[in-house]
Amino acid sequence: MKSQNKTILVTGGHSGLGMYCSKQLASHNYNLILAGRSPEKMEELAKELRSSHNLKVHLIKIDTSSFASVRAGVSECKNLLKNGEVDSLNGIICNAGVRFNRKHTYTEDGYESTYATNYLGHALLIELLIDQIAKNGRIVFTASGTHDPDSADGKIMGIADNATAVELANTGKNGSKPIALGKMYATSKLDMIQYSYELDRKLKKANIPITSIAFDPGSTPGTGFLRNMPKPVAWLAGTSLIQWVIKRNGITTSTADFSGESLARLAIEPAYATGSGKYFQCNVGKLSERRSSKLSYDENRAARLWKDTQELIHIKAEETILSL
Ligand SMILES: NC(=O)c1ccc[n+]([C@@H]2O[C@H](COP(=O)([O-])OP(=O)(O)OC[C@H]3O[C@@H](n4cnc5c(N)ncnc54)[C@H](OP(=O)(O)O)[C@@H]3O)[C@@H](O)[C@H]2O)c1
């Protein structure tokens, strides 16, 4: 199948490093489904890509923090496939993500917003769409080096917590002390990585030829990632002095274009077809396979995470081929 018949869905594919990823996919003649909560912002990039490349770019409204929105987006995607507007879904890139600051908030489903946006919404998306992904398709999860307490990145936001998914989703409810937001971010990414590994094991066991890859873009200034932080912090993070300090302290450094393009490469390059169950990281202009945190390889924790996740996202056995 030629790449112009292939389509990749990218959450948050219209901005930040997701935008560079979408542009890279488009330059390789992949059609796109941009999935995000802001149709106007997505339409801007879609217009640009449709006119610069001869491509189909579809937009699907998905707010990853809302299960109803994810379900509605999945229905739209299935319709596009059914009526032939999308020939073949060859990949899903779970890239949307957020780091909240100051105050804990809860989604309409009743879960802590960082955990729901970064992790639970994407898990639901994958469980509902996995049977639509073409043979040898790929799923790439944008995680973060902050998940690893033994790395310099893992010390900047707050050490990832070893709480269960149920505890994380419900943190701070009923008057209990919530897990700090920096920790919630790092742990949402830990759970995303661990989910990608467990997904890989389940896919292999069931002989389903789909690749599941975890990715850390590295610390990447110039995106909207720090938008919820105080303005001086967001500004300082992008200065060359702070970038120098970051590098000196062993924290990963990258650029939005390099990390976005690397994300696309993981989804389409033949070299990464064997990347299932692995973790790749961008640092100083290189994309390399790395070890993720010790905890991320704990298969007992992964099994518990899987079970808790399926309960938290209210997935029914008949809705997914992943109720294995
Ligand atoms: N930048 C870094 O240093 C860094 C480092 C490690 C990992 N990451 C990860 O890389 C990914 C991309 O981040 P970025 O740096 O490119 O930041 P960004 O510019 O803020 O991009 C985040 C994207 O996620 C989307 N998004 C946020 N909440 C959403 C929701 N509820 N529903 C749907 N989409 C939502 C945003 O859409 P809107 O335009 O609608 O807000 C935006 O497209 C994230 O997962 C982030 O955690 C970033």
Describe the protein's topology:
Elements: E1 6-11, H1 16-27, E2 31-36, H2 39-52, E3 57-61, H3 67-82, E4 88-94, H4 113-129, E5 133-142, H5 165-169, H6 181-205, E6 211-216, H7 231-237, H8 240-248, H9 256-268, E7 279-283, E8 286-290, H10 299-312
Parallel strand pairs: 1-2, 1-4, 2-3, 4-5, 5-6, 6-7
Antiparallel strand pairs: 7-8
This protein binds NADP nicotinamide-adenine-dinucleotide phosphate (NAP).
NADP nicotinamide-adenine-dinucleotide phosphate binds near residues 41, 62, 98 and 220.
Summarize this, please?
The chain is 41% helix and 15% strand. It has 10 helices and 8 strands. The longest helix has 25 residues, at 181-205.
Structural write-up:
The structure is a single chain. This protein has one domain (3-319): 3-Layer(aba) Sandwich (Rossmann fold). It has ten helices and eight strands. The chain has helices spanning 16-27, 39-52, 67-82, 113-129, 165-169, 181-205, 231-237, 240-248, 256-268, 299-312, and strands spanning 6-11, 31-36, 57-61, 88-94, 133-142, 211-216, 279-283, 286-290. An eight-stranded mixed β-sheet has the order 3-2-1-4-5-6-7-8, sandwiched between helices. NADP nicotinamide-adenine-dinucleotide phosphate (NAP) is lined by residues 11-12, 14-18, 36-38, 41, 62-65, 95-98, 117, 142, 144, 217, 219-220, 223-225.
Features:
324 residues; alpha/beta; Rossmann fold; eight-stranded mixed β-sheet; 8 strands; binds NADP nicotinamide-adenine-dinucleotide phosphate
